[in-house]
Amino acid sequence: MANxxxxxxxxxxxxxxxxxxxxxxxxxxxxxxxxxxGHPSVEEIFEQLKKTFSTMSLATVYRNVLLLKSxxxxxxxxxxxxxxxxxxxxxxxxxxxxCIKCGxxxxxxxxxxxxxxxxxxxxxxxxxxxHRFDFFGICRRCQNSDKK
Length: 148
Ligand SMILES: [Zn+2]
Ligand SMILES: [Zn+2]
Fold this sequence. Notes:
The protein is of the alpha+beta class. 46% of the residues lie in helices and 12% in strands. One zinc ion binds next to helix 6.
């Protein structure tokens, strides 16, 4: 996991470079994405911020997330059911482990995947641009609550 403070500084610098106003809302969204605890959805980010910013709309959060995605500073994880989750802490392709019960998403530490990309390129002759590597299962918390 990247240092959230470093990621926050990088994101703020990106806004600055693109001459975008550093509004308190925008900075608060950047802070949540820099940490990306649990890979939040736009709705979850909005839930976290609406108490502080009562005038902020869901559309504002959505717009800023898409903006950061276009800068390459947020990785979007989309799912067949139409839900999208975001990772601004590690905005490059990396493996995810997803709980099918509660929707928890975690990043496993799997450095071997870099070698795998090389292997796949060598094997197929493809120039690999990106990858998607999702593991689906049941998280520890959901396993425990099943037992009760
Ligand atoms: Zn779970
Ligand atoms: Zn992630």
